């Protein structure tokens, strides 16, 4: 008998396969979206519902389950707030409200729950986002692993960004990639004490809302940003492969220009993991019209994202469709494959 | 103080690594030289002659594929993977024996890749240690030391599946000789030796005249830290081809290719060390001594290939109290009893011997994928199929780069 495996939940090839089997092929096309909007027909960060005024509602939902729930740089509450806010931002929306649903295991320390919810609420406060509804349930001991938080974020977009990278576009990343995934991986392997960067605060999860980056960018460059994504599960490799298969072209990336923290590089090498598949929880990847790409990078830097840079571009090809081609540090080429299998269990 | 010196050491290590990894100007200079030698070879051997250079270590195949080195070298140079993955060549029989032990309640300690190896025959309905995990006691470890620690705590009867090449043998030997292994833990030594496999794969390609012979060898750097470069001099002498002991960064490998071509142009066949920062001619004599003390060399079975003379290590009689073949009744394979042990259709043996590329196998990425490996070469990250599956080799990257008119 076929059974669900952890690989089905890691956001890679297997996740798409099981969703296709369970959901996508069973829903008729007109019920995959509202009117002329976008829904599970496009599989973006969130859904878009057109309003009579010409604006759009952007809605996004995500369940957060991370082991361990507390980690350097934040906790599951930080993730639950920042993650859904970022999903709305990546759709070109200005987040205005959030709803949460908490399932917690019997016996979970209330003090820990308080810390988690405080982190969650602190982010909503600083981003000026209303909490307009929610649910709270307790499962008997062993019925759930500690805590699961689901959040729905709602935003308003004048011009939603429904990912469709165009040939010629430059690919921009806002910051070091893979920090969150690397931190969680090291914790899950029980290496907390061996990582001296943790104690010194030099390596921590990047979980944070990207409001201060994305709102000004959307304001100024919305006509030039053809795709935006925060590379969570599946990492940068996952995002780029999804985009490549969506455009039907080839995305060419310069490996040495991808910003990866030295410590992340080193630990990944030790553990035989490729950082390009590790999740980031506070990084934006953009596909931007080449005429403004440099200007966008400079603007991102001025907003405090000094590691922002161009890492590659979208090319059209008659013969090859849906590939991500990596130019390596020595100038050779290889294919950056889409994420497969179980990389790191339950990271976000 | 200790922390400071560690940081200093890491800093130096980072710099060395970068010097061999991220220097496109140096790469261009090396490639220019490689191009010149390849032209000279073309005029010596003719336009259609392919110079096959074989590596003997999964990590070298990783470097070649991961950094796209095949797309950098001239068309008359073909880089092929040889037997460089111990997990790939471990006979199905021994994994079947381990499954039996696990089902009989004995704790089995295994490396993560061995854990996923599929056997030819099912053992009471199970075909891999990973399948048994829920039913029996199978624990993943990263070294024998982990197994020793855990076995001491548990006090349960247990076995460690000792897979690997020359690099792991000194660690196993040292634990045995120092008496660190508790009585309840037995070692199933399945250590394989690389030189016999190298001889065999060079022979077999010579005997198959439709395939070009191997014209140069990139010898394994890690194995050579133990054996010394001297282990390969028989290859350069007997087969008359250059052998270069190489490091694992892309520029190491490019320099090794350059050295091989240079020797070919000059008509030389020497064993040379490129990986001077780690390897000496004589190797680690202490390690060699303790391995010889703890182990005896046996004719051993290689999965899908058969028996290779003097190619495996088993514990000596003096240490039989640690030996799973003695204490737990694990059955040896006798030369007459060995049967072909790859699943139907799988071409792993030919891939391992450099006779076929992973993409030549009809099962590659169709039936056999990293998530559901069918043959052993798709399991370990050292296996050529697993590496090609993850980094998309087989020339596709070059073709796309060419189509898009991209350059170095």
What's the topology here?
The complex is a heterodimer of chains A (348) and B (408).
Chain A: H1 13-22, E1 47-50, E2 56-64, E3 70-71, E4 74-75, H2 76-90, E5 94-105, H3 110-127, E6 130-139, E7 147-157, E8 170-173, H4 179-188, H5 196-199, H6 211-221, E9 225-229, H7 235-247, E10 250-254, H8 262-271, E11 285-288, H9 293-302, E12 309-315, E13 323-327, E14 333-335
Parallel strand pairs in A: 5-6, 10-13
Antiparallel strand pairs in A: 1-2, 2-7, 3-4, 5-7, 8-11, 8-12, 9-11, 10-12, 13-14
Helix pairs in contact in A: 2-3
Chain B: H1 2-19, H2 24-45, E1 51-55, H3 58-66, E2 77-81, H4 92-103, E3 107-110, H5 129-132, E4 138-140, H6 144-154, E5 158-164, H7 169-177, E6 185-191, H8 194-207, E7 214-219, H9 221-227, H10 233-239, E8 243-245, H11 250-266, E9 271-273, H12 285-294, E10 295-302, E11 306-315, H13 324-327, H14 348-352, H15 384-391, H16 396-403
Parallel strand pairs in B: 1-2, 1-7, 3-4, 3-5, 5-6, 7-8, 8-9
Antiparallel strand pairs in B: 10-11
Describe this structure in words.
The complex is a heterodimer of chains A (348) and B (408). Chain A has helices at residues 13-22, 76-90, 110-127, 179-188, 196-199, 211-221, 235-247, 262-271, 293-302; strands spanning 47-50, 56-64, 70-71, 74-75, 94-105, 130-139, 147-157, 170-173, 225-229, 250-254, 285-288, 309-315, 323-327, 333-335. Chain A contains nine helices and 14 strands. In chain A, the strands form three sheets. In chain A, strands 9-11-8-12-10-13-14 form a seven-stranded mixed β-sheet. In chain A, strands 1-2-7-5-6 form a five-stranded mixed β-sheet, covered by helices on one side. A two-stranded antiparallel ribbon of chain A has the order 3-4. In chain A, helix 2 (76-90) packs parallel to helix 3. The model of chain A has no long low-confidence stretch (mean pLDDT 93). Chain A has two domains: 33-157, PurM-like, N-terminal domain (60s Ribosomal Protein L30, Chain: A), CATH 3.30.1330; 170-335, PurM-like C-terminal domain (Phosphoribosyl-aminoimidazole Synthetase, Chain A, domain 2). In chain A, helix 3 links the parallel strand 5 and strand 6 (130-139). The two termini of chain A are 28 Å apart. With 348 residues, chain A is an alpha+beta fold. Chain B is of the alpha/beta class and 408 residues long. Chain B is 40% helix and 15% strand. Chain B contains 16 helices and eleven strands. Chain B has a five-stranded parallel β-sheet with strand order 2-1-7-8-9, sandwiched between helices. A four-stranded parallel β-sheet of chain B has the order 4-3-5-6. The model of chain B has no long low-confidence stretch (mean pLDDT 92). Classes of the chains: A alpha+beta (348), B alpha/beta (408). Chain A binds chain B through residues 7, 13-14, 196, 250, 252, 256, 262, 266, 272, 315, 317, 319-320, 323, 325-337, 340-341, and chain B through 3, 10, 14, 21-22, 24, 27-28, 65-72, 250-251, 254, 369-371, 381, 389-393, 396-401, 403-404, 406, 408.
């Amino acid at each position: 008998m076929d059974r669900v495996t952890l690989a089905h939940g890691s956001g890679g090839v297997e996740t798409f396969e099981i969703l296709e089997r369970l959901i996508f092929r069973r829903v008729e096309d007109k019920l995959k979206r509202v009117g002329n909007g976008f829904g599970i027909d496009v599989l973006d960060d969130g859904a878009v519902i057109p309003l009579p005024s010409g604006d759009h509602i952007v809605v996004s939902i995500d369940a957060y389950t991370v082991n361990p729930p507390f980690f350097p740089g934040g906790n599951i509450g930080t993730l639950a707030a920042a993650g859904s806010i970022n999903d709305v931002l990546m759709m070109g929306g200005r987040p205005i409200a959030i709803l949460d649903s908490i399932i917690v295991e019997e016996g979970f320390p209330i003090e820990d729950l308080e810390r988690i919810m405080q982190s969650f609420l602190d982010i909503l406060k600083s981003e000026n986002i209303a909490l307009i509804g929610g649910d709270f349930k307790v499962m008997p001991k062993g019925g759930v692993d500690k805590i699961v938080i689901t959040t729905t974020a709602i935003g308003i977009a004048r011009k939603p960004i429904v990912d469709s990278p165009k040939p010629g576009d430059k690919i921009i990343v806002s910051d070091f990639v893979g920090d969150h995934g690397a931190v969680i991986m090291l914790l899950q392997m029980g290496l907390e004490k061996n990582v001296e960067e943790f104690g010194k605060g030099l390596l921590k999860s990047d979980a944070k809302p990207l409001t201060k980056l994305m709102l000004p960018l959307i304001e100024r460059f919305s006509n030039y940003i053809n795709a935006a994504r925060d590379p969570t599960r599946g990492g940068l490799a996952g995002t780029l492969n999804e985009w490549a298969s969506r455009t039907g072209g080839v995305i060419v990336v310069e490996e040495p220009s991808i910003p990866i923290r030295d410590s992340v590089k080193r630990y990944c090498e030790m553990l035989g993991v490729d950082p390009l598949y590790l999740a980031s929880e506070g990084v934006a990847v953009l596909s931007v019209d080449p005429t403004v790409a440099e200007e966008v990078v400079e603007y991102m830097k001025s907003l405090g994202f000094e590691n922002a840079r161009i890492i590659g571009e979208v090319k059209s090809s008659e013969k090859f469709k849906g590939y991500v081609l990596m130019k390596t540090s020595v100038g050779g080429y290889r294919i950056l494959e889409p994420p497969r299998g179980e990389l790191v269990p339950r990271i976000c | 103080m200790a922390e400071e010196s560690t940081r200093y050491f890491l800093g130096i290590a980072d710099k060395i690594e970068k010097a061999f990894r991220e220097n496109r100007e140096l790469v261009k200079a090396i490639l220019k030289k490689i191009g010149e030698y390849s032209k000279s070879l073309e005029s010596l051997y003719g336009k259609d002659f392919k110079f096959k250079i074989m590596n003997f270590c999964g990590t070298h195949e990783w470097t070649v594929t991961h950094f796209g080195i095949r797309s950098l070298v001239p068309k008359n140079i073909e880089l092929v993977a040889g037997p460089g993955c111990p997990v790939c060549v471990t006979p199905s029989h021994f994994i079947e024996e381990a499954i039996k032990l696990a089902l009989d309640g004995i704790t089995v300690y295994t490396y993560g890749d061995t854990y996923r190896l599929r056997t030819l025959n099912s053992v009471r309905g199970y075909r891999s240690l990973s399948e048994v995990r829920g039913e029996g006691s199978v624990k993943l470890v990263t070294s024998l030391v982990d197994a020793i620690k855990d076995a001491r705590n548990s006090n349960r009867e247990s076995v460690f599946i000792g897979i690997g090449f020359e690099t792991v043998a000194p660690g196993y030997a040292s634990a045995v000789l120092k008496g660190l292994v508790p009585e309840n833990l037995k070692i199933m030594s399945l250590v394989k030796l690389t030189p016999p496999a190298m001889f065999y794969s060079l022979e077999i390609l010579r005997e198959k005249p439709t395939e070009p012979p191997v014209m140069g060898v990139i010898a394994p750097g890690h194995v050579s830290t133990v054996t010394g470069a001297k282990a390969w001099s028989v290859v350069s002498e007997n087969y008359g081809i250059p052998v270069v002991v190489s490091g694992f960064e892309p520029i190491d490998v490019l320099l090794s290719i350059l050295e091989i071509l240079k020797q070919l142009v000059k008509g030389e066949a020497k064993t040379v060390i490129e990986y001077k920062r780690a390897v000496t001619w004589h190797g680690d004599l202490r390690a060699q001594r303790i391995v010889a003390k703890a182990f005896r060399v046996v004719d051993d079975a290689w999965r899908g290939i058969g028996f290779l003379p003097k190619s495996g290590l088993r514990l000596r009689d003096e240490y039989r109290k640690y030996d799973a073949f003695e204490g737990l009744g694990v059955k040896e394979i006798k030369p007459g009893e060995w049967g072909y042990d790859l699943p139907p259709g799988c071409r792993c043996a030919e891939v391992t011997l450099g006779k076929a590329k992973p993409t030549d196998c009809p099962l590659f990425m169709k039936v056999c994928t990293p998530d559901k490996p069918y043959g052993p070469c798709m399991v370990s990250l050292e296996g050529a199929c697993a590496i090609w599956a993850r980094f998309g080799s087989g020339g596709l990257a070059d073709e796309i780069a060419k189509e898009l008119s991209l350059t170095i």
